[in-house]
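S.,

As promised, the thiamine diphosphate run. Input:
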Amino acid sequence: MSPNAPKKKYTRKDFSSDQEVRWCPGCGDYAILAAVQRILPDLGGTPENTVFISGIGCSSRFPYYMNTYGFHTIHGRAPAIATGLKLANPELDVWVITGDGDGLSIGGNHLLHVLRRNVDLQILLFNNQIYGLTKGQYSPTSQVGKVTPSSPLGSVDQPVVPARFALGACATFVARSYDTSKRLPETLTDARKHDGAAFIEILQNCPVFNDGVFDLITDRKTGPAYQLWLENGQPMRFGANGEKGLRMNPETLTLEVVTVGEDGITEADIVIHDETNLSLAWMLTDLPGVVALGVLYRQPGPVYNESVTKQRELAKERFGEPDIKALLRTGHTWTVV
Amino acid sequence: MSPNAPKKKYTRKDFSSDQEVRWCPGCGDYAILAAVQRILPDLGGTPENTVFISGIGCSSRFPYYMNTYGFHTIHGRAPAIATGLKLANPELDVWVITGDGDGLSIGGNHLLHVLRRNVDLQILLFNNQIYGLTKGQYSPTSQVGKVTPSSPLGSVDQPVVPARFALGACATFVARSYDTSKRLPETLTDARKHDGAAFIEILQNCPVFNDGVFDLITDRKTGPAYQLWLENGQPMRFGANGEKGLRMNPETLTLEVVTVGEDGITEADIVIHDETNLSLAWMLTDLPGVVALGVLYRQPGPVYNESVTKQRELAKERFGEPDIKALLRTGHTWTVV
Amino acid sequence: METSAAARVHPSPRKILDSVVIRFAGDSGDGMQLTGSQFTTATAMAGNDLATFPDFPAEIRAPAGTTYGVSGFQIHFAAHDIRTPGDAPDVLVAMNPAALMVNIDALEPGGLVVINTGAFNKNNLAKAGYEESPLDDGSLDPFRVLAIDITKMTLESVKGSGLGSKDAQRCKNMWTLGLMYWLFGRERESTVRWLEKKFAKNPKVAEANIAALNAGHIYGENAELPHGIGAYQVPAAKLEPGEYRNISGNEATAWGLVTGARLAGLEIVYGSYPITPASNLLHNLARLKQFGVTTFQAEDEIAAVSAAVGASFGGAIGITGTSGPGVALKSEAIGLAIATELPLVIVDVQRGGPSTGLPTKTEQSDLFQAVWGRNGDAPLAVLAAATPGDCFYMAVEALRIAVKYMTPVMLLTDGYLANGAEPWHLPDIDALEPFPVKFHEDPEGFMPFMRDKDSLARVWAIPGTPGLEHRIGGLEKQQDTGHISYDPANHHMMTKLREAKVQRIAKDFPKAAIDQGDPRGDMLVVGWGSTYGAISQAVRMLREQGRKVSHLHLRNIWPLPEGVGDLLRSFGSVLVPELNNGQLVKLLRAEYLVDAESLTKIAGQPFRIGELVEAVEERLNRSLQ
Amino acid sequence: METSAAARVHPSPRKILDSVVIRFAGDSGDGMQLTGSQFTTATAMAGNDLATFPDFPAEIRAPAGTTYGVSGFQIHFAAHDIRTPGDAPDVLVAMNPAALMVNIDALEPGGLVVINTGAFNKNNLAKAGYEESPLDDGSLDPFRVLAIDITKMTLESVKGSGLGSKDAQRCKNMWTLGLMYWLFGRERESTVRWLEKKFAKNPKVAEANIAALNAGHIYGENAELPHGIGAYQVPAAKLEPGEYRNISGNEATAWGLVTGARLAGLEIVYGSYPITPASNLLHNLARLKQFGVTTFQAEDEIAAVSAAVGASFGGAIGITGTSGPGVALKSEAIGLAIATELPLVIVDVQRGGPSTGLPTKTEQSDLFQAVWGRNGDAPLAVLAAATPGDCFYMAVEALRIAVKYMTPVMLLTDGYLANGAEPWHLPDIDALEPFPVKFHEDPEGFMPFMRDKDSLARVWAIPGTPGLEHRIGGLEKQQDTGHISYDPANHHMMTKLREAKVQRIAKDFPKAAIDQGDPRGDMLVVGWGSTYGAISQAVRMLREQGRKVSHLHLRNIWPLPEGVGDLLRSFGSVLVPELNNGQLVKLLRAEYLVDAESLTKIAGQPFRIGELVEAVEERLNRSLQ
Ligand SMILES: Cc1ncc(C[n+]2csc(CCOP(=O)(O)OP(=O)(O)O)c2C)c(N)n1
Ligand SMILES: Cc1ncc(C[n+]2csc(CCOP(=O)(O)OP(=O)(O)O)c2C)c(N)n1
Ligand code: SF4
Ligand code: SF4
Ligand SMILES: [Mg+2]
Ligand SMILES: [Mg+2]
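Predicted complex:
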């Protein structure tokens, strides 16, 4: 944020553009939009210093609805475009909006590299397990067997697990939430506060082409049994009454669902979440019968754009004031009289 | 392999083409070539049913030196081209040859998807931590600080860890070896025997642009202290006299180097390798002061090209003999008289 | 399913019309596409010639009642042969205010508007942007208006069905269809049967819809319609006898590819990444696995074409389909197929550009990219389909050229062809000449780049063949041996050879011939691709007016067929109408040094016949002055 | 480092030559590139005009002694101004049999061959493919041969240095250089100083090399050279007075970009993925971080151009450099920059195609791709540099156009320009006109696509500016507001507008003017890019012979400058020599309907002056018959 940013207190409305929102009625994207618009003022963001960069997809329409700077680019390339923007002006607060197709299909390579470079961005991957905009083909996160127009006998592709992919890409911040979650703003805030690339998978319902894929998890009634909300330093408890938890099986090195109070299980058996533990984060990416939500992994690391800036300053120190005339005379010159 | 493949016993020579090998003298690629040529006859391969597909790079010259079918394609696309080939003819034994630039820079997305789909291929990634063919720029696996023509003040990019990337991509077989290792043929053989995508990172010395980056690991003298050779079901021992080993720290969930016989450490403290354990494999990708070699992870899973074939057969069963005339008449037709 | 429908005669006295254009318009949820396609089937059975075009909203599912959520379907049917869905509707069906708002400007004064007043409430009027109801403000005065509370009528007609109000309301498109059936003398049976089948699992819904359909029809029969609105009849057209179906371009392309592969004796590997308007090519082919078709939904366009190239290397025919932005991404890999001389078919279903452009709209702006959009001197063959049904034949032809000449072939269609539909005289499959591929098998003297003297195609030797082991790649290759070669003279020769091979394809084509008109005259109108219908109708009208205008339509863009130059030079002037900023015209000028003039329309929409007629007249008159 | 070197006079009686072409050839490990560049420096200081071209082996480091491991360096220097490294060498230095084998065919009979017999052992002869030694079999009879055991001489000269035999042998290139210095009357000081600096940390090596250099020189002075070989002198050329340096194209491009950015007042974000022969553009710029240059080595070409587009959105100038295959991959993203009207510079250092082609060889075959290789109607500006030094000015110009017109600009250079070098008269930086960018800042009435009436450029409003928040994208935009628009008329208008904006750039260019010769005559030779030198020399020779030939060289490919058509029509015929299969020629024919003829050379090598002269003569004679 530039130091002389105005002190004006912004509200959610200041971050809403005048464009009519054109997602299908009931689309999960609405809730995510609302969450983002809600947190930005609290984080001290200003419309002029905030930029949303997206690829192509339903989700990638997002920037149009933000009264900030925005760039609705081409399919899959938002991370690369955002990297260039951040290199041109590191002061900006840059958000990348992508979908499971945009980010993990055509854009998988850029996502890999923006994560491992640790460019200071927030990357929101709207995972509806479907290609929405092109009308419903299966995506890289669709489950095996998914019947769609392009997989009339069911998809045979093993899906990508976004959080696992992100850890494999050496991401320094990996989180998960879902569209209508009350805790989405909190997770987004955590992401914003992280220095470096913050990756958030947001489970998002597409009522038109993939209605209800996440219902078990996101439903008010069934949800609690499937949602494991991670809190750093806290035991991993979940369930309607918090009766369940995760225990480490040291033989298999997996996390098992147990019920506290049953079979002699006590609170002490439940694993304490440590956001900085990479092995633990890995195990949390794919749990049996429960979904880890919140921050799976957070570990500070060198930030790409900062290193680049430092090097540019170092070069200035080392090579002195730039002088084109001297540049043209590096090496050997001679004079014809 | 087609059932009526000739029973002729092939030798290494049968797999060597008449093309002069044009890598730089001392390049690690020679040793890898020799290892591949050595194992193919033993695996019952025939030159006609074996195909090598590569991208672009020094390593990607590989197919020219094999007396098999070969395709030296374009930069980064070998996994996709191999997928198409395997769909056209699943009987072929298809090997993909790629480099750290070819496979993890421009080709990262295809590598991700070929791994998660689990196409039945062997994928050999020659990792010399440099772009050889284009004369020595840093690559996605180069260490931070690497000085090259394109990073005169040192690279600031955090490197990709190939094995970690592969696990993040849900690979079903992940191994590691190095160019001159005596055990490379064994690892290659394991890869060949795996149904599905077998990923092997091969540390490879580039004497011209990155000489000696792996010396500590691969040197005859220093090597034993840095090489942890994994054997399924065996304790993870290493060191010149096998005096060292890995112990699990249950608090940090990391593997620690310990010396058996010191500080009360016994053989019982040493972790037993289990190739099918995904958490263990993850921890093995990046160890402190030692490099895991051999098969880090191996877990059978549905093979993409087999599922595709099955579905095609299912379609034939379900929809009967293909008949173009009937096809043109699906839906509604009428006759004008 | 086949019904004989020739020349029915309707008993009641109907006004005879020569041709009619109807546009059905409503909210995305109103089922206009279904309504349109049912009307199409019934019209085809009535023996008219027809052409249709859907107009989907750009949004997946816009909020109800908004203008950008309006979905349209236009059908043109006539007692003679026609080739476009019509310039402007004679009849507009507007199911809500937004549909009226969006479409009323297209209607000529005197046109008929059928309006569902039930949807003209305050809320909907506001959403459509009306301050006052157009039913009251006189703005519809220039038109004949049939204003009916279709919602209410529908609800009444399905009262007994036991459906909830929401489901009951859904039947209003069938009520409307019933009314339209009556107006234009269509039979209801095919729709009744279709409803029964579609809702087989839900007979209540089927019955309700049928009831609504019948009620609409009865309304027409009984209600006293306003003055000037009556029942019409469009007599059957004289169509060539035979078996017909309605076909869209993407269907025809898919079936043509499958047919071509059969004629070649090959399996298909179709690598594709979804993109509008090419996606349903993938969908269509995915349903044809029993034909030896493998569809591979790749991670991106580069992987899609790469997989196709790999498949062709392996002895299948690799095919990839996409639209403009996808072709851009594929261009490097297409170059590989050119360099390695592997067969490959690329279907480009063009859409509005540049960049993401107008993804749901039609355009012909990828011609340059098709012919010249690659690094290096990288020639390939380019074909263009002229009508939805022609997509079938051009797909077969693309496959034939690809395997005969061992070359990539780009087939250009577009959004208009892909989604537009026309009655299609089914081809006699047995009459199509097979072109079976023979893979090379003889190791004696084998070299991977040895060629057929005639076609200049190299041998196709596939992995799995004993004794033919060899390596290919994207580096320049030595003649015959295919070994890497940096030899300067060889590179020159190979570049010329690749060019010559592609040029040689023209020998397979018939000499260029005028599609309509005399071989010389005042003006030659040269078209390509989907403008065929509009140009053809326009030229017919001009010729009827005595204009010395002819029509040449190019289906082979590259190489150009022989004789084009002579034809161009046989006319006083040459006009090249294109749905782009002038691309074929440059090609023709460069090749033939003829001062061909460009007529451009870059509006995401096909030419109207009228605007073509006008443009030609204007130029002819100008040159007379 | 600056030395005055004008018009030295050598005391000893030397044969005066007008110009000489020397080719140094040896094994990759023999240090031929260093030798060549040292000879170049000394020659420049002697006041000759000169041009050089290195010929690297395709392999990184081929096994010693093989023909494909031969590395060459050619220098052409003269007493008058010259523009190419010469058609064929007068002198060949062959450090081993392979070097002789590869290069001897290029030498004209009577040419001088300097041979290191020390390398002509059995093993090396066999590796080079000689059955018998060419020193013995008479095959060198047509040439003047200076056969010396340079290896032995070198070892002797450095005996006292304490170097091991391997290191001592390495000095043989300096021995050879010493001899060549003597032969052509060059001073040794600059090389001595360079050696001292280069081996500052290893004075033993420096001393040995200097000793070898001196020994070679002394050998020339003292040895009795065979008949017909003596000392030569090429008098100084009349060069424009001023400060000079030797410059290669990629250096000039890099410095031009940095200079352009300074003139615009912008920082550079250069996104690139290494590719031959563009890689050292990245290397050059990576060393200039202190100039506000950020280099981003991207994961692929798509990311490279995307980052550049993102940077331009952010208010830096985004630049991306690559070669043909990379441009193919970038084409979709370039389309985005066109649609969003962002400035962007794309440098295409062309190489042999199609596909991977001949990566280390030069070619001009990306012109089509540059002008037309994108989906949709997607116009951008295309420039082409004519000489290594011209790359500097064209890079500045590319930047100027990009920011003035808010458009992508493609700058075409090629492998020949990139690696070739020439003496360059340093520009007066202060005399270059600045073109400072003014970002839009005023929220009053702001709309992101409002334009300058004159240039048609839209405003550049960058993130971080309060009150100008807006969204852009690749979908079609409404005029002025930039809101997404599916309106047909708007799309037509915007397409025409994008075209008009790019065409308008031509108003900034001077009217097309003949480079050499009269404005009318028998033949106009039209070139572009790196063929400048060869065409220019050829036309000069032809004109000296009295031929009515002129030379027009296009540096603005798109839009074309005004007046080209008139010039073309002022000549009896038009010949367009290109290092491709005929690309500019199509453009010219399409634009001007002139029957321009194509002269193609697709051999990975520049035109020789002689072959151009011949081609022109042949055609002129033909037309006289
Ligand atoms: C180069 C290119 N290829 C394909 C497309 C078509 N396309 C647009 S969005 C999309 C996928 C959208 O899926 P996702 O990213 O999951 O977003 P969602 O619509 O589900 O939010 C595709 C295939 C395109 N616009 N550009
Ligand atoms: C599209 C494209 N971009 C760039 C290149 C240039 N290029 C060729 S190989 C290579 C990288 C090679 O590195 P790696 O894959 O690690 O292979 P190595 O040479 O080290 O074996 C690059 C950048 C190319 N050939 N094609
Ligand atoms: S298609 Fe699905 S993802 Fe797209 S806007 Fe509609 S509901 Fe949302
Ligand atoms: S440059 Fe390096 S990787 Fe390439 S061939 Fe030479 S030694 Fe091997
Ligand atoms: Mg999605
Ligand atoms: Mg490498």
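The interface with chain C takes residues 20, 22-25, 56, 58, 74-76, 105-106, 108, 131-135, 137-138, 140, 149-153, 157, 208 of chain A (CB under 8 Å). The longest helix of chain A spans residues 304-319.

- D.
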